[in-house]
Amino acid sequence: MSAWLIMVMAGAAVVAIGGISAVATHNKLVRLRNRVDNAWSQVEIQLQRRYDLVPNLVETVRGHADHESTALAALAQARAAVGAAATPEAKAAAEDELACTLRGTFALAEATPELKASDSFRQLQSQLADTEDKISYMRLSYNDTVMAYNSAIQTFPGILFAGTFEPRRLLYADDGALLAPRVSL
Description:
- Helices cover about 80% and strands about 0% of the residues.
- With about 180 residues, the chain is mainly alpha-helical.
- α1 (about 5-65) runs antiparallel to α2 (about 70-85), α1 runs parallel beside α3 and α1 packs antiparallel against α5 (about 120-155).
- The protein is rod-shaped, with a radius of gyration of 25 Å.
- The chain starts with a helix and ends in a 24-residue tail after the last helix.
């Protein structure tokens, strides 16, 4: 075999390995991006569940605590803000505000014995608590998936092929969501 043929075969092997590597890296980035989208949809499913439970909670509270129309109006306003949010970041901020408002409503229940004793309120409270746990888990899962995706497009060899792949933002707790709600009776 001539030296020229060996060099051509070696060059072809390098090109083939490079091409296979490029395709594999691109496919990996696509899979990671799809996982991020899937993780966000799982967050949205739980957020929608909470969103759907709020009207039942409002009606239950209204039936036992008519004098707390301010708290109910705040809850309805927070729910409307969630419905109006257009981006994942805006939706996350609105959901954080809704969660804070829900905590205030549960604090109201502690001060209203007949509401606290209501079976329907207890069931709704349990469902919402379960949903909040799922939301926390789904947000954690989303952030883990985003971290893996962002790392893949920002490190070698992914950075070479990441021109069409936009980094995603992590979900952070809104500063207001970390504060305890104020309850006035």
